[in-house]
Prior knowledge:
The chain is of the alpha/beta class.
Amino acid sequence: MSTLHFGSALLPTGWADDVQAVVTDGIITKVTAGTAPQAGDERHQLAIPGIASLHSHAFQRGMAGLAEARGETADTFWTWRETMYRFALGMTPEDTEAVATLLYVEMLEQGFTRVGEFHYLHHAPDGAPYANPAEMATRIAHAAEITGIGLTLLPSFYAHGSFGGAAPHAGQRRFVCAIDQFAKLITATRLAVRELPGANVGIAPHSLRAVTPDELAAILPLAEGGPIHIHAAEQTREVEECIAWSGRRPVEWLLEHAPVDRRWCLIHATHTSATEIATLARSGTVAGLCPITEASLGDGIFPAREFLDAGGRFGVGTDSNVLVGVADELRQLEYGQRLKHRERNVLSGGPGISTGRALLDSALAGGAQALAQPIAGLQAGARADIVTLDTAHPSFAGRRRDAVLDGWIFAANAGVIDCVWAGGNKVVEGGRHRLRQKARDTFNAAVRRLVA
Length: 452
Ligand code: ZN
């Protein structure tokens, strides 16, 4: 058992001063506000809850920044995807673990304490399954274990190259499974995370491009009540191809034909009509927004204002991991809306409400729902995922409470996060994860070889 004391802390009920948190076996067991620090308390000035990155493809961190020179034709998501496929084909299980380890170190240093790993790099480079079908998932789980990040592993079912069951491309061979093979992969993945504290497993039908309706129906029971994530409507070309195949847009098709509810998370949902937005909001499904990746790939801008006005829920994901940070994702989300609507504080929720606070509250709740964490935040019963901010940072001068969140998200770059506890373990101190140097060295050696 350990006890922490915070000068102020953001609780589910709002900000409170003089907060003591008791942590037992990685879980917050008691939170008391308005209590003076006791002997034995570890003291910090300001605490907020850790946030989930609900959507990550860890291996892509290794190619971050490698697709930023223009090609012969206009560069799009689809040309970026070719670079990604080439990079993926070279990665060994050791490389994957090295890249995921550094990524999770960076996530924790930037305030993400749980990751939803939408994992599709399953097989050996020739497309044959490894002896352990969950070899790559096991490497992801090991990276989570040694860094301390909470893991929701979402093995992805990927079978086709386009809508209507088209054959997969050669570049997709490491991702592709038959249904019975996928069932074995799920079983092996559950084994791989069995000993990992706080880990859980869901499934991720990759997209309507990669999965037929019959396959979707066949794999859903494999989730066994866990979360279900799917990419949807990230690109306008995807919407056009979906209409050509089915007469429906991707989100529209899912809402009509799949049991989309609170267990589901639709990743991106960028190109959605007003009707889709209203129905999606009513379904209780989380929209998994990945604002930095969506900007990086030129996807488009999600109708966030309309979705929130309709009562929709969202969380944020780092997706391609081209840049990793809670504040960065939330800032990009709000700034996309400002550019689109030519207004300020679009997502604040109402007069006088801090935009940073509104964004953080939504991302905390949406991330927890999407990764099946029934209790989140600084309260009894939640995993002890806690972030403290350095109140001496110049962007916080004279600020309290919500104004500190706005200073962090909109007015600071580095040096804001002081300590991070993940599952009760203090893994980041003075802004540095305890494995930072080792993780960098291993990552650098692996990626130098991969890009050579
Ligand atoms: Zn993705």
